[in-house]
Amino acid sequence: MPVTRTGSTHADVARGSENASMGSSRSGFATLLRAWRDRLSPADAGFAVTPDRRAPGLRREELAQLAGLSVDYVLRLEQGRATNPSAQVVGALARSLQLSRAERDQLYRSAGLLPPRDGTVSTHVPAGIQRLAGRLGDVPIGVFTADWTLVWWNAAWAALLGDPAVLPPSERNLARALFGSGVAHAAMTTVRSERGQDAFKASIVADLKDAVSRYPRDVQLDRLVGELRGASDAFAHHWAARTAAVQHTTDRKTIRHPEVGDILLDCDVLIVPGADLRMVTYTAATGSSDAAKLDLLRVTGVRRPVAANWPTTP
């Protein structure tokens, strides 16, 4: 490798230049965060707009709620006192602010991070999808990536299934909840599939197989599959099956809620073309007792206690 006259390699010089650039970019992170928070309409983010509202965009606590962060941490980011946010934090902020892909990449770079590479599972939720989901506030909605990681949800979803914000971002994954033994599994609400639990689990594994075939360079996806194959005999069995399982689309599920009891709901999985996302919705027939229970949850905003106390899957 060529060496400069000072004894440093060209790569060292390049790294030093890149680090200086990243350091200067980092100073703009707080400015971007504040500007994009002020730009986003509260209504588009699913919040009610009242006449006495003074903030032109999202309030700081609203952004914190959407991103699953503490208000204090968002404040420190905006004041430049927290200067090394993780990629997961930046990704959550980019989704909450409904940034375009170019803006998302700019936010990553301003934090001194490389933007997500092409060829890996995308966590980007287009602004239009967020607006659509936000305006269907009466329907519990969760948006999942190709590897079944939950990246967006509304208040109705949290009231029905528990608030995902109490979980670390890496644990907001349906496959980990079904087959793992960590906090994701401990936090999962009891849900019975009309198709049967084994068929439901097989469909999630089939989806992961499909994701691996389309994203062979995704390190995190490879790590997830390796982890579950080693930790769960059931996952390993489904993974090794030679017959193709039906991928998860539509089902009827009974959710055992600790406050309102069993709720029988239609579960529909809507594919978002061009974004490789799944929008999962839960609905009940108008006038049914199950619809009344959903209405009660929407009004009361019932929340579970800490994740470790939630009921687990059978």
UniProtKB/TrEMBL annotation:
SUPFAM superfamilies the UniProt entry points to: lambda repressor-like DNA-binding domains
InterPro entries referenced in this protein's UniProt entry, alphabetically: Cro/C1-type_HTH, Lambda_DNA-bd_dom_sf, MLTR_LBD
Gene Ontology molecular function: any one: DNA binding
All copies of domain HTH cro/C1-type, residue ranges: 53-104
Region spans: Disordered: 1-25
Pfam families in the record: HTH_31 (PF13560), MLTR_LBD (PF17765)
Protein name: Putative transcriptional regulator
